[in-house]
Amino acid sequence: MPRCRACDAAIAWRQTTSGKRIPLDLETLWVLPGELPDGEKRCVVVTGDGRTVWGAQVSADTPAAVRGQVSHWATCPDASRWRSR
Ligand SMILES: [Zn+2]
Which candidate among 5, 17, 37, 61 keeps its CA 20 to 30 Å from the CA of 84? Predict the structure, then answer.
């Protein structure tokens, strides 16, 4: 299992459709793609086939929800060390 070089969290690497490899959190969540109502936090996930999806985080039983994993860059407590690379 690969680990984050900054915070030592377990992560997964995935290649996106644009050919970029990015680190992902192991936790999966569901996102409803599309625009968000005001004040709602936008969530970005990468799906199993490498697509990047933006939308609202929703529960697993929501129709049209897409399952994916969050980029570890968004959740890493030490993300500045990623940016400086
Ligand atoms: Zn980290």
Answer: 17
> 55 C-alpha vs ligand 1 centroid, how far in Å?
23
pTM, to two decimals: 0.79
pLDDT digits 0-9 by tens, 4-55: 999 999 999 999 999 999 999 999 999 999 877 777 778 889 999 999 999 9
Q: What separation in Å is there between the alpha carbon of 47 and the centre of ligand 1? A: 20
* Selection from 18, 27, 28, 23 nearest residue 8 by Cα: 23
Nearest CA to 69 out of 6, 12, 9 is that of 12
User: Where do the domains of the chain lie?
Assistant: 11-78
Kindly give the distance from the C-alpha atom of residue 82 to the centroid of ligand 1, in angstroms, as a whole number. Answer: 8
